[in-house]
């Protein structure tokens, strides 16, 4: 064997190709493997292999990093760690049929089964071709109680440190934000006793169900989509990330339904702010500050508050005075709510108190509102919601009567709608009077003819 080995290395020095080197090396390895199998007993071979495994495992452990992601970031103040919540939602999406231990259940009012990571099972996630190992540790029985010390352990090779911090963890957080947005229940908040009180926004309106012209729907949806995509642009030009909409038109034209559709489309919570309940500028500032990001702040019937009236049309005190200054409340000693206070929120320093916000004014009388409130930068898009016309009626016919194509009475109804001023709310009420579509449309034709006749008289 020694002679052959010398010949191998001798041939290596004079080899003229890599193929000859490979063939010689393969022959040497085969001889060594045969010698080990014949000369070393199986028990000794097993012992050597086990020691090599231990040595390799210790080396691997030394090269691994483990991050501990606790449930609470600040246990004293009870501040939750959002990365823990993100991992808790993200990891079940990586669970497969190969797992032997899972937590499973169905939450109240939910239709589908929910899966969760169990403490006895590790979850392996792959990102950009690299594998990451997660494990949930619940600590002692008294530690993980909703207030305590549950934590995830994320293990990865030391070489991946930069990738984990710069790309992988942001990927987990971004996925979590997307999951929350898709499933979250939209809330509506009302101001009661100087505090915001929440309830579920159960309004079912969507853009598909709105009785608006297709052109106006597209214009609104495109504007909302542009707003969501322009965070960096707003930051670059030094403007707060917010947008203002003015909804104006006669009562019953769908202003509240449009707000609900926008909230359901964006998955933004709605804060319904009544200016009549605001008794000072500081109270207004506090109310706005307490509203969350990704929200719609609605000030309905803004023309009903005299502070917002056009100053050129006021008959009496100026807009910066408040005859109700003796209104009772915890801040009655401060300066009363003023138009300038509202303007400061719209585009002054106060407006930087939240991100990704939409402010909506509604009014039946746009001409009464002070122009200072309506200029671009405060109310960026003015949306006129008017009386029902032909194209929008097709939406109501589909929603209420399930008429999606041709019907012999549709053309006649469209013609009548061009002659009379009738709101979507009035027509919707007419469509609910009968169950049969034909009977319902015939009754609507008679109703619209009566309206047209009365207009002529």
TrEMBL record:
InterPro entries, sorted: AAA+_ATPase, AAA_N_dom, At3g28540-like_C, ATPase_AAA_core, ATPase_AAA_CS, Mitochondrial_chaperone_BCS1, P-loop_NTPase
One Pfam match, given by its short name, reads AAA_assoc
Give the matching Gene3D superfamilies. 6.10.280.40, P-loop containing nucleotide triphosphate hydrolases
Task: Look up the record and name the cofactor or cofactors this protein needs.
Answer: Mg(2+)
Keywords annotated in UniProt: ATP-binding, Hydrolase, Magnesium, Nucleotide-binding
Reply yes or no: does the keyword ATP-binding apply.
yes
Name a biological process GO annotation. response to stress
By what name is this protein known? AAA+ ATPase domain-containing protein
Q: What is the species listed in this Swiss-Prot or TrEMBL entry?
A: Sphenostylis stenocarpa
